[in-house]
Amino acid sequence: MNITPKEINGNWDVGWALDVHTLSSVPLPDGEFRTERSQLGELLYQVKYRHDKTKISPIAEIAAEFVKGQITIDEHHDLLYPEAIIPIPPSTFRNFQPAIAIAAKIGDILDLPAALYYLIKVKRTPPLKNLAHDESRQEQLKGAFDLQSQNGNFRCVLLFDDIYRSGETLTEATHVLRDRGGVSRVLVLTLTQTRTKL
């Protein structure tokens, strides 16, 4: 599968979105949209909205292969390789949480511990895509995350999310990991990125 990774910048050390989520979205007369997604975007859509768990492994394999090519331990054994993969906690409750399932599978492939519930959401927030301004999203996310335990002892982590929109969620999560968890190096991986900042 072809992907077009793009570096994403924030308060983390380095980050990537593996592809765009949608290529186009055209409104139809009935109020629906005809949406064309990237190949990875389509796989993610099938997992998130069609609950097709058979797409988890192909997505995780693509992500793990990318990580293997980007992150290595250098000759001085500086810690460049993450000690754990940490997913962003879900914003809505579902019986099946796609981002957590995908993060766990990426961890399996990379032989990387998946700290699936280390970062937790402690404050309810409205869907951020419905908030028009960066300031509104930042205010809603302030204090939204905490750590299940202060004893993770992670120096370097791979922070994972399925879709990158404005970066506000990742920014707040990185802040918590550094300030409360003592993490010195945060690497970010998202599967897809929206075409426009929401």
Identify the notable features of this structure and list them briefly.
alpha/beta; five-stranded mixed sheet; two-stranded antiparallel sheet; globular
Walk me through what this model shows.
The chain is of the alpha/beta class and 198 residues long. Helices cover 30% and strands 24% of the residues. The protein has five helices and nine strands, in the order E-E-E-E-H-H-E-H-E-H-E-E-H-E. The protein has helices at 39-50, 56-70, 98-110, 134-141, 168-179; strands spanning 6-7, 14-20, 22-27, 33-37, 84-87, 119-121, 145-147, 156-164, 185-193. A five-stranded mixed beta sheet has the order 1-2-9-8-5. Helix 2 crosses helix 3. It is globular and about 55 Å long. It starts with 5 loop residues before the first strand and ends in a 5-residue tail after the last strand. 35% of the residues are buried. The mean pLDDT is 86.
Mean pLDDT: 86
Low-confidence segments, given as residue ranges, are none
Coarse morphology: globular
> In total, how many beta strands?
9
Order of helices and strands: EEEEHHEHEHEEHE
Strand fraction equals: 15-25%
Describe the protein's topology.
Elements: E1 6-7, E2 14-20, E3 22-27, E4 33-37, H1 39-50, H2 56-70, E5 84-87, H3 98-110, E6 119-121, H4 134-141, E7 145-147, E8 156-164, H5 168-179, E9 185-193
Helix pairs in contact: 2-3
Report a brief summary of the structure.
With 198 residues, the chain is α/β, with parallel strands linked by helices. The protein contains five helices and nine strands; from the N terminus they run ββββααβαβαββαβ. Strands 1-2-9-8-5 form a five-stranded mixed β-sheet. Strands 3-4 form a two-stranded antiparallel sheet.
